[in-house]
Amino acid sequence: MKEKIKKFELFLKSTNFDRGIRLGVAILVPFAVFYFLGYLEYAPAVVLGAALNTPGDIPGSTKQKVNAILISIGFTMVITAGILFSKPFLPLLLLTLATISFVASLISVYGFRASLVSFSGLLAMVIAFAIQKETTTEILVQVSLMGVGGLWYLLLSLLFQKITPKKDQNQLLSDSLFLIGAYLKLRGKLLTQKNKRDTLLKQTFVLQNKITEKHETLRETLLNARKRSGRSRYEEKQLLIFVSSIKIFELIEAKYLDYQVIDAIFGKHKKFLKAAKKLNKIMGNHLIHLSELLIQNNKIPPKKTLIDALSNANEAITNYLDTLKLPEAREGALILKNLYDYQELLLQEIRAIRRVMANVQKPSKVSIKKKDSQQFLTLQEYSLDILVQNFHLNSTIFRHSLRLTIALIFGYVLGLIFDIQNTYWILLTIIVIMRPSYGLTKERSKDRIIGTLIGAIIAVVIVLTTQNPILYGVLAFISIILAFSLIQQNYKSAAALITLSIIFLYSLINPNTFEVIQYRVLDTGIGAAIAMVANYLIFPKWEASNLKQILLNALRMNKKYLLATQELYQEPTIEKISYKLARKEAFLAVSNLNASFQRLTQDPKSKQQEFQLTYEMVTLNQTMVSAIASIGTFVIHHKTTAASEEFNRVIHTITHTLESACNHLLDKEIEDTDTTTTIEESKDSLLNTYRKLSNLRDENIRQGNTELDIKTLHGLQEAYLIANHMNWLQSLSENLKEATKKYQLSSLNFLKGS
C-alpha cells in the first residue's frame, strides 16, 4: 500500500499530470468567462483551439516550444477552414481530405516535434467533420475563435512555465535516473544469470534506447537554453546532475564484459561475483530512489548501504585470491579488480548527484564552453531539401503518408456508403492508431480496442447507477485531464478515459447513452481494423528494409569511436572533445540500431528477414561499442603507458575489417589483404606484455615481496585489458564482417520477395 501511495504521489507531482491540469484549465476558463459574459456559444470553438494545440507543448527549449505551438495554431486554422468550406461539395471534400492527410503526415520528416504538429493538423481535420458551420461568416468566426483558443493555451503554457520554470527538466532528470538505475540492475544480473542472458540483453536494448532519448532531450533543454548572463544556481544543479547521469550511463556501457570469459573463469566460483552483482543492485535502487526525490523533495537516504556494498565487493577480491591462490587466481582477480574500479567510479558519480541534491544553494561549478556544448546537440534541419529527399517510395514517412491518406479516404467513403452516424470517429481512430511501423500500429490497435471496451463498460455501470447530468459533466472533465496525463505512459488507460469523457459529453446532448456507447465501440473497431489492414497491405515498409542503413551507420560510428579512442590513448593527458563527440555519436547510433531491432521483433515473422542473424549483428555492435568504451574509460581514469606499435597495428586491422563489413552492406567489391600473420604477431606481443608483468610479479612473490604497489597493479590491469580487449575487438569485427556478408546475400533475396 505504501508503494502505491508513493507512486500516486509521484504521478500527481509529475509533468504529465501538470500538462493534464494545464489542459483542464484551458478548457474550464473559456467556458466560465463566456458563460459570465453571456456568449457561451463561443466557448466550444475556443476550447477546441486550445485542445488541438496541446501536442506541441513538450519539454525542450522555450523558443522551439513557442514556434511549434504558433505553427500548430496556423496549421489547424487553415485545415479546419479547408474542410468546412469543402463540405458542401463531395468531390472537393475528398480531394481536400486527401491533400491535408498527405501533407500533414509528410511534415513528420522534420522530427518528433514536427510529428506532433502533424498530429494536431490531422486531429483538426477529423474534428472539422463534426463541426456544423455552413456560411462563410460562421466558418470564419469558428476558425478565428480556434486561433484565439490556441493563443490562450500558449499563454497558459508560458504562465505555467513561469510558475514552475524547471519542472520539465526535473522530470526528465528523474526519468533518466530511474531508467539508468533499472539498467544498472539489469547489467548486474547478466554477470551470473547465464541461461537468461538473451532475454536480459533484449531488455537492455529497450532501456538503452529510452535513456538515449531522455539524454537527447535534456541536451536540448539544458545546453541550448543557457542564457547570456549565465546559469542560475538551480540550473547549475540540474546541469551537474545531468552530466553525472551521462557519466554513469557511459560507465555502464563501458563495462560490457566478455561473458564467455566470465563463465569460463568463474564457472565454479560464481559466488565471488555475487558481491559485484549486489553492488549493482544497491546502486541501481539508490538511483531510482534519487529519481523519486527529485520530484518529492524529501531527504537524501544515508550512504552507508552504498559504502558497505562497495567494501563487500572489494573484500570478494581478497577472498577469491585467498581461495584460489596466485598465480591461478590472477586472471579472475584482475577481472574482479577492473569491475570493482568501474563500480567505484559509478559510486563516485552517484555520490556527486547526492551532494548536488543535498546542497542546492552551493553547487559545484561546471564549465562547458558554449561552442563545445553546441557540438553535442543533435540539431534538426528544417530546409525544403529534407522534404524533397523524402519524396519517394523508399522513404518510410512518404509511404506512411500515402497509406494513411488511402485509409482515411476509405474510412470516410465507407461511412458514407453505410450511413454510419459518426464517421469521424472512424477517422479519429485511424489517425490515433496508425503509425509508420506495423508493430506499433498493432500494439496501439489492441490497446485502443481494450481501452475503449473498458471505458464503455465503466460508462454503462455509471449510467445504470445514476442519471445525473452534472455528474456526467464532472466525470467527463476529470476523465479528459487524466487521459491527457496518461497518454504517454499508459495508452490503454488513456483510451479508456477518452472513451469515458466522450460518452459522458455526448450523454449531455443525447439522452440515449447506450446508443452512444454502441456506436463508439463499433466505430473504434472499424477504425482499428482499417488501420491494421492498411499497414499490412498498402505500401508496407517492413523494418528489415530500413535496418541496413541503420546498421551501416552503427558500423561507421563504431569505427570512428575506435579511432578517437586510439588518439586518446596516444595522448592520454588531454581528454579531447573529439573523443567525447565520437563516443556520443557511437552510443546514439547503436541505440538507433537497438530501436530498429525492437521494431523488427514487432513485424510479422514472415517479414523478419534473418532474425537471428540480425540479433547477432545488433549484439556484436553493442558489445563492440562497450569494449571500445572500456579502453577509453580506463585511459581517462588511470595513468597509462604509451600506446605501442602493436596496439596501433591491431587498431588498423580492426578498422579495415569494419570498413569491409560496411562494403559488404553497400554491395561493393572488397580487396582483402592477408594480415593474419601480422595481426596474430601483434596480439601475441600485447599478450606477452601482460605475461612478462605477470611473471615478474610471480618472481617478486617467490622472493617474499607480497605487497602490490599501485604502479604494478595498474600496469597489470592495463596490459590485461589492452591484450584481451584488442583480441576481443578483432574477433568482434571479424564476426561482424562475416555476418554482414551473409546478411547482404539474404537481403537481396528478401527484397526480391517483398
TrEMBL record:
It comes from the Bacteria. Residues 412-533 form the Integral membrane bound transporter domain. InterPro entries: Memb_transporter_dom, YccS_N. Keywords: Cell membrane, Membrane, Transmembrane, Transmembrane helix. The chain crosses the membrane at residues 21-40, 66-85, 92-110, 116-132, 139-160, 401-418, 448-464, 470-487, 494-511, 517-539. Signal peptide: none annotated. It is a multi-pass membrane protein. It holds the Pfam family FUSC-like. It is found in: Cell membrane. Residues 70-323 form the Integral membrane protein YccS N-terminal domain. Its main location: membrane. GO terms for cellular component: plasma membrane. Belongs to the YccS/YhfK family. This is Uncharacterized protein. It comes from Polaribacter irgensii 23-P.
